[in-house]
Design brief:
This is Gfo/Idh/MocA family oxidoreductase. InterPro entries: Gfo/Idh/MocA-like_OxRdtase_N (IPR000683), Gfo/Idh/MocA_oxidrdct_glycsds (IPR050463), GFO_IDH_MocA-like_dom (IPR055170), Glc-Fru_OxRdtase_bac (IPR008354), NAD(P)-bd_dom_sf (IPR036291). Pfam families: GFO_IDH_MocA, GFO_IDH_MocA_C3. The protein has about 350 residues and is of the alpha/beta class. It has helices spanning about 10-20, 40-50, 80-90, 105-120, 135-145, 170-175, 180-195, 280-295, 305-320, and strands spanning about 5-10, 30-35, 55, 70-75, 95-100, 125, 150-160, 200-205, 220-225, 230-240, 245-250, 255, 270, 275, 330. It folds into 2 domains: about 5-125, NAD(P)-binding Rossmann-like Domain (Rossmann fold), CATH 3.40.50; about 130-280 and about 305-330, Dihydrodipicolinate Reductase, domain 2. It contains 9 helices and 15 strands. The protein has a 9-stranded mixed sheet with strand order 14-13-12-11-7-10-9-8-15. It has a 6-stranded parallel sheet with strand order 3-2-1-4-5-6, sandwiched between helices. A hairpin with a 2-residue loop joins strand 11 (about 245-250) and strand 12 (about 255). Helix 3 runs parallel beside helix 4 (about 105-120), helix 4 (about 105-120) runs antiparallel to helix 9 (about 305-320) and helix 7 (about 180-195) crosses helix 9. It binds nicotinamide-adenine-dinucleotide. Nicotinamide-adenine-dinucleotide binds near residues 9, 12, 37 and 78. Nicotinamide-adenine-dinucleotide binds near residues 76, 99, 128 and 168.
Length: about 350
């Protein structure tokens, strides 16, 4: 059986990544869409042959509970709408994939997790890299200590945003934050799977070179992390700098991905030589992995707790910035948020 996915929000990511990927998935397919823009309905019906009864808008969305063709609702809306639609999807009895960042704050993450637990549905984050081979190789280096213990890790994630001041990503009410919530979550993730540990503390600083453009949201943030093993790390995230990299210094060598979190192709090297993996759509792999979690009880590679953990780190970073870089303790159970 192939599970039916309904995409909620037909913006850039649904249009150019998720819908095309769903043409190649083995365990799920594009069964429906939920859109607030009536003109898009016809386009999607024609392009993907979606039955009219599987098209919803934001108002009649809750009636999706009666539609047996939809097994999974994938929330691909501006961040401020993630919690509302994820919770409504769970209440409709549908499994949920929620895009990153999980929500506007930790409280909303809890509400999503609770709603999915209560409804007995599965919850996964749109963290596509956990299904991606270069990232899995990094996790293997860490697990098998290929280069010994990790001593220092750094990760950058950013891009230059320069010509679209009206976009929702720069509107705090819709985004919940700037570069940190949009791209910084990738750098935070890199640090965690690149060390195999949750951090125990963070201090952070914010920089702005174009305050007239970034009126409400952070432009650039750096943050320093400590880990229980003694490893330490730094991240840089920005809406002003094109950067996309993970680099780890270990006891006996190093490993690096650059780029580390773009769609395709990732690339990597180690002190032993280059890495070379088959390139496939990360979104295809991610959605198939989640479908296999539902169908065959395969591991949930990016559970809701992982999204919540990252939001807890985001909140600690903003708190540190508001306290002029003061170190914030982070108290996670060792395995919290890992799959
Ligand atoms: P987008 O701006 O291209 O699309 C947003 C969609 O939301 C549009 O269809 C728009 O019509 C709809 N929308 C509803 N209410 C809106 C409002 N008040 N303001 C603006 N748009 C509104 O955004 P996107 O790039 O598709 O991002 C959507 C989500 O997916 C975000 O949470 C983003 O972080 C996430 N995303 C994840 C990845 C990834 O690699 N995992 C990549 C891109 C985006």
């Amino acid at each position: 059986k192939k599970l039916g996915i309904a995409l909620v929000g037909l913006g850039g990511y649904s249009t150019y990544q998720l819908a095309p990927a769903l043409q190649d998935t083995e365990h799920c397919y594009l069964a429906g869409v939920v859109t607030g823009t009536p003109e898009k309905e016809k386009i999607w019906v024609n392009k993907y042959n979606i039955p009219k009864e599987n098209i919803y808008n934001y108002d009649n969305f809750d009636s999706i509970k009666d539609n047996k063709a939809i097994d999974i609702v994938y929330v691909v809306l501006p961040n401020s709408m993630h919690a509302d639609f994820s919770i409504r999807a769970a209440r409709a009895g549908k499994h949920v994939i929620c895009e990153k960042p999980m929500a506007m704050n930790v409280e909303e993450c809890d509400a999503i997790i609770d709603a999915c637990k209560k409804a007995g549905v599965k919850l996964g984050m749109g963290y596509r890299l956990h299904s991606e081979p270069y990232t899995q190789e990094v996790k293997r280096f860490v697990r098998e200590k290929t280069f010994g213990n990790i001593r220092y890790i750094s990760a950058d994630a950013g891009y230059y945003s320069g010509s679209s001041p009206g976009q929702w990503r720069l509107n705090r009410k819709l985004s919940g934050g700037g570069a940190l919530v949009n791209m910084g979550v990738y750098a935070i993730q890199s640090l965690i799977y690149g060390t195999g540990e949750n951090p125990i503390s963070v201090s952070a600083q914010e920089f702005s070179t174009r305050p007239a453009y970034f009126k409400e949201t952070d432009e650039t943030i750096t943050a320093q992390f400590q880990f229980d093993s003694g490893a330490f790390g730094t991240i840089m995230t920005s809406h002003n700098v094109n950067a996309n990299r993970l680099h780890a210094k270990c006891e006996r060598g190093w490993f690096e991905l650059d780029p580390a979190s773009t769609y395709i192709p990732l690339a990597g090297r180690t002190s032993n030589g280059g890495l070379n993996f088959k390139q496939e759509s990360q979104q295809k792999l991610q959605m198939d992995d989640f479908a296999m979690h539902i169908l065959f009880d395969a591991p949930n590679l990016a559970p809701g707790e992982m999204g919540k953990r990252d939001m807890m780190i985001v909140e600690a970073i903003y708190k540190s910035i508001s306290e002029d870089g003061k170190k914030q303790a982070l108290n996670f159970e060792p395995a919290y948020g890992f799959s």
